[in-house]
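About this split. The held-out portion is used to measure sequence recovery: a designer receives only the C-alpha cells and must propose an amino acid at every position. Recovery is the fraction of positions where the proposal matches the reference. Here is one held-out target exactly as it appears in the evaluation file.
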C-alpha cells in the first residue's frame, strides 16, 4: 500500500512537471475556476462570458480587445478526457431561444477550453508572430465546493455545529426528532442508519429550497454513482456518553471519515488544487432577501470556502513542478441586474466586507484580490418611476407568468455593517428596512448587433482583472 502510494505520487509529480514544462515553453494555459454556492449563477456566468469572448462587441473594458491585441478566440475540445464538456451551446440556446429560460444548474465538474490568438505589441511586434494562450474554464458544483470545509473537521465537531444550527430551522424538525431519539452507543442496525441518512438528505433538500447555504455534505444532494453506498449513509448525531466498536456512533464517524478521504480529498487534489485564477460567485441579494440569519450563513460558508484556497504567486519553477497557487481571486456578487446601477457600489461593498478576513489572508500570501457586482446575462432594464412624489430607481423585467413589472428592492445601506452586524448577532429580521426580490426570466426580445454577445454587467471588467495581465 505504501509503495503504491509513493509510486502514484511520483507518477502524478512527473505528469505535472511534464505538463508544466510544455505549457511554459510552448502554449501557456490559464486554469480559471468558477465556483460558488447553489443558485449563485455559475452556469449563466460562464455562458455569458464565453459568448462575449467569441463576439466581443460588448467588452470595451477588456484592454486586450480595445487595444486590438486579440486576433481571434475559438472553442477547442477540453484537455481533460475524463471530464464532461461544459454545454455552452445548450445553455446559450436556453437563454436566447424563442421561449428563453434559465439553464439547468451545475450537477458535476465540467470544463471548457477557449484559445486566444494574440498579436504582439510594443517593440517586439515586428520581430515575432502571433502567440497562442489557452483558457481552461472549470465549473464546480456549489454543493461539492462546500465540502472542502469538512476536511479540517472531525465527525464530533461537525455533528455538534450542524445540530446546533439545525435547531433553529423548521425544515429540520423531522430529522432532529429522530436523531435525538437515537442512542449512538447501541450497536449499528443498518436499516436505522439508512433511515437517518434518508431523513437527513430530505432536510438538506428542503434547506436548499428555503435558501440556506450550508447544505453539506454536497454529494447527498448530487450523489451520482455513489447513491446508496455506505459513504453516503451517515448523518449527524448527538454524542453519547460512551462509544464502543460496532456502535452506531462509531460507524457514522467511520463513514464520515471515508467521505472526506474517498470523495472530498480526491476532488480537491484532482481539480480544485490545479487552479491559477479563481472567481467566487455569491447570491448576496438572495441572502439579504431571506434575512439576517441567511446572510450570516452565507458569510460563514463563503469564508470556509475561501480558506480552502492556496493563494500566492506562481514562479516559473512552481508552475513547472505542479505546485500551483491561486494568483488572483475575484469576489463577485451576482444578479446585479436586479438592482439599479446606483446601488451596485453598495452591493460590492457588502460582498467585500463579508469576506474581509479571507481577503486579507489571501493578499498577505501574495494573491491579488478584487470585488465587484456583476451579471453574466442581463435580464432587466433600468427605469425611474415616481412614487408619493419622489423618484425611485427601479429595474424592469419579465416574470415567469409573462408579465413585465418594475421592481424597487429597497435601498441597500452604504455601510455594510448595517447588515452584517445584526446578521452576526443572530437577529431574526431587519429592523429598519425590508428588501424585496423577484425572480426575472431572460428577456423575450434581445437587442444584439452583429459582433455583440448577450447583454451583461461588468463581465469585461471581471475578465480584465482575472486574466488581463496574461493577454
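Reference sequence for scoring:
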Amino acid at each position: 500500500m505504501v509503495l503504491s502510494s509513493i509510486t502514484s505520487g511520483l507518477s502524478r509529480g512527473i505528469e505535472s512537471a511534464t505538463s508544466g514544462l510544455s505549457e511554459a515553453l510552448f502554449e501557456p494555459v490559464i486554469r480559471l475556476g468558477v465556483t460558488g454556492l447553489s443558485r449563485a449563477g455559475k452556469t449563466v456566468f460562464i455562458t455569458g462570458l464565453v459568448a462575449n469572448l467569441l463576439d466581443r462587441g460588448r467588452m470595451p473594458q477588456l484592454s486586450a480587445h480595445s487595444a486590438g491585441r486579440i486576433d481571434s478566440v475559438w472553442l477547442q475540445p477540453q484537455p481533460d478526457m475524463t471530464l464532461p464538456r461544459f454545454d455552452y451551446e445548450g445553455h446559450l440556446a436556453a437563454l436566447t431561444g424563442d421561449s428563453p429560460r434559465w439553464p439547468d444548474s451545475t450537477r458535476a465538474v465540467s470544463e471548457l477550453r477557449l484559445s486566444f490568438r494574440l498579436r504582439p505589441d510594443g517593440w517586439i511586434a515586428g520581430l515575432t508572430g502571433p502567440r497562442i494562450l489557452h483558457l481552461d474554464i472549470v465549473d464546480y458544483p456549489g454543493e461539492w465546493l462546500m465540502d472542502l470545509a469538512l476536511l479540517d473537521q472531525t465527525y464530533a465537531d461537525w455533528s455538534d455545529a450542524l445540530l446546533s444550527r439545525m435547531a433553529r430551522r423548521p425544515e429540520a424538525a423531522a430529522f432532529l426528532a429522530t436523531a435525538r431519539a437515537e442512542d449512538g452507543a447501541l450497536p449499528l442496525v443498518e436499516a436505522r442508519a439508512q433511515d437517518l441518512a434518508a431523513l437527513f438528505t430530505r432536510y438538506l433538500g428542503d434547506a436548499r429550497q428555503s435558501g440556506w447555504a450550508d447544505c453539506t455534505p454536497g454529494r447527498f444532494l448530487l450523489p451520482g454513482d455513489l447513491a446508496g453506498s455506505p459513504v453516503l449513509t451517515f448523518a449527524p448525531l448527538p454524542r453519547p456518553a460512551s462509544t464502543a466498536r460496532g456502535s452506531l456512533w462509531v460507524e457514522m464517524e467511520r463513514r464520515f471519515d471515508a467521505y472526506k478521504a474517498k470523495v472530498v480529498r480526491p476532488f480537491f487534489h484532482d481539480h480544485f488544487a490545479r487552479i491559477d485564477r479563481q472567481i467566487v460567485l455569491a447570491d448576496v441579494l438572495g441572502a439579504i432577501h431571506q434575512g439576517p440569519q441567511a446572510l450570516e450563513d452565507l458569510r460563514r460558508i463563503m469564508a470556509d470556502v475561501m480558506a480552502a484556497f492556496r493563494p500566492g504567486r506562481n514562479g516559473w519553477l512552481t508552475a513547472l513542478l505542479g505546485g500551483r497557487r491561486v494568483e488572483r481571486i475575484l469576489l463577485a456578487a451576482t444578479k446585479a441586474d436586479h438592482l439599479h446601477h446606483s446601488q451596485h457600489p453598495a452591493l460590492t461593498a457588502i460582498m467585500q466586507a463579508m469576506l474581509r478576513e479571507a481577503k486579507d489572508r489571501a493578499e498577505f500570501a501574495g494573491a491579488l484580490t478584487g470585488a465587484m457586482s456583476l451579471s453574466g446575462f442581463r435580464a432587466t432594464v433600468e427605469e425611474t418611476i415616481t412614487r408619493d412624489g419622489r423618484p425611485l430607481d427601479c429595474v424592469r423585467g419579465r416574470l415567469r407568468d409573462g408579465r413585465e413589472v418594475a421592481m424597487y428592492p429597497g435601498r441597500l445601506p452604504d455601510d455594510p455593517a448595517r447588515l452584517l452586524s445584526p446578521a452576526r448577532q443572530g437577529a431574526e429580521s431587519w429592523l429598519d428596512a425590508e428588501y424585496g426580490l423577484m425572480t426575472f426570466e431572460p428577456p423575450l426580445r434581445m437587442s444584439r448587433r452583429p459582433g455583440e454577445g448577450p447583454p451583461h454587467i461588468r463581465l469585461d471588467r471581471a475578465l480584465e482583472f482575472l486574466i488581463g495581465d496574461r493577454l
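Annotator remark: The radius of gyration is 24 Å.
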